């Protein structure tokens, strides 16, 4: 924990650990995903990270990120304790722009234990849905 002085002033360089669903995070990293803190997570989510990587599956380019190959797949785990019961699930999403409109496609409610076995089919389904969108306009 601390700050570092650079030409622009003090910058917080605190490194926060990634918490929750450690086995899933390790499995995703073995599959080429990178993990980072999730600044958009719900305040009650006990998992503070998300995982992301570019898919190798053929896909139409995103209009906003057309210089990048493939579409990005994002995995967001959720662990919430509500009324003393722990609820665990994972959402897998693909976001992109086509025809001047942004799309957010997702598969959700997947158990963390099931995700590794289902991920190839989930990714293929999201890419197929993305490719099936016709440009608007």
Provide the number of structural domains: 1
Strand order of the largest sheet: 3-4-5-6-7
Assembly type: single chain
What's the end-to-end separation, in Å?
50 Å
Order of helices and strands: EEHEEEEEH
Mean pLDDT: 89
Give the overall silhouette. globular
Number of distinct helices: 2
Radius of gyration: 17 Å
The count of strands amounts to 7
For the structure shown, list the relevant keywords.
single chain, 137 residues, alpha+beta, five-stranded antiparallel β-sheet, 39% strand, globular
Explain the layout of strands and helices.
Blueprint: E1 3-6, E2 9-12, H1 22-30, E3 34-37, E4 49-54, E5 72-82, E6 85-98, E7 101-110, H2 115-132
Antiparallel strand pairs: 1-2, 3-4, 4-5, 5-6, 6-7
How would you characterize this protein structure?
With 137 residues, the chain is an alpha+beta fold. The chain has one domain. 20% of the residues lie in helices and 39% in strands. It is built from two helices and seven strands. The strands form two sheets. The chain has a five-stranded antiparallel β-sheet, with helices on one face. The model has no long low-confidence stretch (mean pLDDT 89).
């Amino acid at each position: 924990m601390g700050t570092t002085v650079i030409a622009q002033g003090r910058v917080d360089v605190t490194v926060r650990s990634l918490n929750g669903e450690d086995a899933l995070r390790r499995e995703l990293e073995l599959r080429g995903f990178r993990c980072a803190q999730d600044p958009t997570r719900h305040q009650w989510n006990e998992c503070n990270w998300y995982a992301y990587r570019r898919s190798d599956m053929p896909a139409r380019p995103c209009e906003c990120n057309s210089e990048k190959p493939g579409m990005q797949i994002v995995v967001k785990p959720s662990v919430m304790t509500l009324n003393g019961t722990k609820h665990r699930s994972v959402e897998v999403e693909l976001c992109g722009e086509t025809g001047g409109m942004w799309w957010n496609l997702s598969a959700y409610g997947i158990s963390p234990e099931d995700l590794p076995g289902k991920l190839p089919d989930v990714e293929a389904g999201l890419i197929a849905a993305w490719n099936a969108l016709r440009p608007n306009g």
